From TrEMBL:
Residues 166-270 form the BACK domain. Residues 637-647 have a biased composition (Polar residues). Residues 618-636 have a biased composition (Pro residues). Keywords: Kelch repeat, Repeat. This is BACK domain-containing protein. SUPFAM superfamilies: Kelch motif. It comes from Macrostomum lignano. Residues 614-647 are annotated as: Disordered. The keyword Cytoplasm does not apply. InterPro entries: BACK (IPR011705), Kelch-typ_b-propeller (IPR015915), Kelch_1 (IPR006652), SKP1/BTB/POZ_sf (IPR011333). Gene3D superfamilies: 1.25.40.420, Kelch-type beta propeller, Potassium Channel Kv1.1, Chain A.
Length: 647
């Protein structure tokens, strides 16, 4: 049996400096194998050598015992004789004894025989460990300095936490008096705060613990006003109880007023919660507040989801550097800002990319095909190449090439596979399609589409792949094809109400949205929604900007339209807008890209551990772009085939 790992990895402010004593300087004698631990009414057989290797407390105990035996035997016998079996007992005064029993079992030193029993002990943490048992385990592991056990204990709640037990685990973490466990559970609660606050146990939370949670920088909320409803419910649960004015005020100070928009600030000032504090305006909350609270009021919280934008045809068309970009740009909705990475030290693409597909699959962002400009090799043109950004390792990795070069490709994820369809191989447009298996790192051809098309929108929805609109070199399409992977067959779905090439699509709440595009005469701002149950399209509120060849994704329940080519400027745009899908909702402006770009691609990435390192911009903010040229007169012709279908 090997000594548990992670011994030196866990220290905290509670006096775990005894880790330095944890590794024994010399091996224990063989007669320590068979001992018993007597704690309360429990008598537990243990392997004393293994116990000493994994517990600083027991190591010191056995060391003292050996020293005393050696001193007693000095001058009478050259070797220390082991005590008889009936005397090999260590009596421990510790409560509750079940905590020590758990520690001994997890060390794997209990019992005197049998691989089956040892396997059961080693697999103990594979079974759920309740909150009370976890608290007892942590207290015992820290008391007996079994620091390797703390590694396991720290991972336990992360495996077991859910909305039904989260507050019980939080109480266990508090009672364990171990800051690292408290931080781990609190981080989970912060990430799931709004649904967790709907649990009954939330209303029993002590005020100080609630304040600590509301101040957490990782609190997962869309707006600071999201705090008002949980605070209101928590206070209402105390109606009739004595509650001073300072408690509601302390809770409301956790609302970061510096992050409110003017409209949100006005709403906050109208909140009846202010009256419970005896205040007329929210600004009075911070009067006399501590410096840490005052500075927090202007700090953005950490986002749990970002938009990951890759490449694009960047700049204005008259710029000397107008062309495919290798930059990666990250949108932080909490900061309301973009972090641009274009330096070699950042997560750059390695060569310029445009008209590529971008797909999130697992913990990797895949960039599929498109048009590349490789300054190192001098090659520029369509590519079959695929690369993936590993969000855990923070690096790009090459993946298997597609069977076809695909510029103006359409790509999407469906049921754990990536699909790449259509596009242009440098000689002509395609109706071919292929599917990528990430575990095998292999592409496989599937049935051809019914039409040749590039510049289409593509998305997976309810077990089918939808390909919308596009261009065949002569004709712009409104047609929609649906692929059934079980039958390996394409069929037509109901056509869109508008012809759309360079269209972007997004899925929200089981419905498909087609945004913008080029109808052969002009770029579009129109939006339509497809209901797969009805096989029917219906018009939705228009975007604020006419655009084609832009990227779109869903973030926090809102669809973002990013960049593109617009007739309103007759060039690329940096304009970003967002919309929460619904027939009555209107589009609104969002922070613009640092530089105008069309033919970019994007996806949304969720998970704080995956995205936190991407949030700091590697580049200084670019200078403002020059004003765009005036729009062309109405009679001006569209650009040639390449630009009209693909800008």
């Amino acid at each position: 049996m090997q000594t548990l790992s992670g011994i030196s990895d866990i220290t905290d402010q509670a006096g775990d400096a005894a880790v330095a004593e944890y590794q024994p300087p010399k091996p224990m004698p063989a007669h320590l194998l068979d001992w018993r631990i007597q704690v309360g009414q429990l008598s537990i057989p243990v392997n004393g050598m293994l116990l000493a290797e994994n517990s600083g407390w027991f190591y010191r105990h056995f060391s003292r015992m050996e020293e005393e035996a050696a001193t007693a035997a000095a001058g009478s016998a050259p070797a220390v004789q082991p005590p008889p079996m009936e005397q090999r007992v260590v009596r421990v005064d510790y409560s509750p004894p079940e905590g020590l029993q758990l520690v001994l079992r997890l060390i794997g030193c209990t019992g005197q025989a049998g691989e089956q029993q040892r396997d059961e002990e080693c697999g103990l943490m594979q079974r759920p460990l309740g909150p009370e048992a976890l608290a007892a385990l942590v207290r015992a592991a820290r008391h007996f300095q079994a620091f390797g056990i703390l590694d396991l204990a720290l991972s336990e709640p992360l495996r077991q936490l859910n909305l039904d037990n989260c507050w019980s685990y939080w109480r266990a973490a508090v009672e364990s008096d171990w800051p690292l466990l408290q931080a781990a559970v609190q981080s989970w609660l912060a990430a799931n705060f709004l649904p967790a606050s709907g649990q009954l146990e939330f209303l029993r939370l002590p005020a100080a613990e609630l304040v600590s949670l509301l101040r957490h920088r990782q609190l997962n909320i869309d707006s600071e006003l999201d705090l008002l409803d949980p605070v209101q419910r928590w206070l209402d649960a105390r109606l009739g109880a004595e509650l001073d004015r300072e408690t509601p005020a302390a809770l409301l100070r956790c609302v970061r007023q510096g992050r409110l928009t003017p409209a949100q600030a006005a709403e906050f000032n109208r909140s009846p919660l202010l009256l419970r504090c005896g205040l007329s305006r929210a600004a009075e909350l911070l009067a006399g507040a501590s410096s840490s609270l005052s500075s927090e009021a202007n700090e953005a919280r950490v986002p749990h989801e970002v938009i990951f934008v890759c490449g694009g045809w960047e700049g204005l068309q008259n710029d000397p550097n107008f062309g495919p970009s290798d930059a990666v740009q990250i949108f932080n909705y909490q900061e309301r800002a973009w972090a641009r990475h274009s330096q070699p030290t950042g997560p750059v693409l390695g060569c310029g990319h445009a008209y590529s597909g971008c797909v999130l699959l697992g913990h990797r962002v895949y960039v599929v095909g498109g048009y590349v400009q490789n300054r190192a090799t001098g090659y520029q043109g369509p590519t079959a190449g695929v690369k993936a950004f590993d969000l855990r390792r923070q690096r790009w990795e090459p993946r298997a090439n597609m069977h076809h070069q695909r510029n103006y490709v359409s790509a999407a994820e469906l049921d754990g596979f990536i699909y790449a369809v259509g596009g242009h191989n440098g000689r002509g447009r395609l109706n071919t399609a292929e599917r990528y298996c990430p575990t095998a790192n292999r592409w496989k051809m599937i049935a051809n589409m019914l039409q040749v098309r590039s510049d289409a929108g593509c998305a997976g929805l309810q077990g089918h792949l939808y390909v919308c609109g596009g261009f065949n070199g002569h004709q712009f399409f409104s047609s929609v094809e649906r692929y059934d992977p079980l039958a390996d067959q394409w069929t037509y779905a109901t056509a869109m109400q508008s012809v759309r090439s360079g269209v972007s699509v997004s899925v929200c709440d089981g419905q498909l949205y087609a945004l913008g595009g080029n109808n052969g005469n002009s770029r579009l701002a129109t939006v339509e929604r497809y209901d797969p149950e009805l096989n029917q399209w219906s018009p939705m509120p228009q975007m604020l900007t006419q655009r084609s060849n832009f990227s779109a994704t869903l973030l926090r329940g809102e669809i973002y339209a990013i960049g593109g080519w617009s007739d309103q400027t007759n060039t690329t745009v940096s304009v970003v807008e967002k919309w929460r899908p619904g027939p009555a909702a209107a589009w609104e402006m969002a922070p613009s890209l640092p530089l105008p770009a069309s033919a970019n691609c994007c996806c949304s990435v969720t998970g704080l551990s995956l995205i936190e390192s991407l949030l700091t911009p590697a580049d200084p903010p670019p200078p403002p772009p020059p004003p765009p040229p005036p729009p062309p007169p109405p009679q001006q012709q569209l650009p040639n085939e390449l630009s009209s279908s693909s800008n």
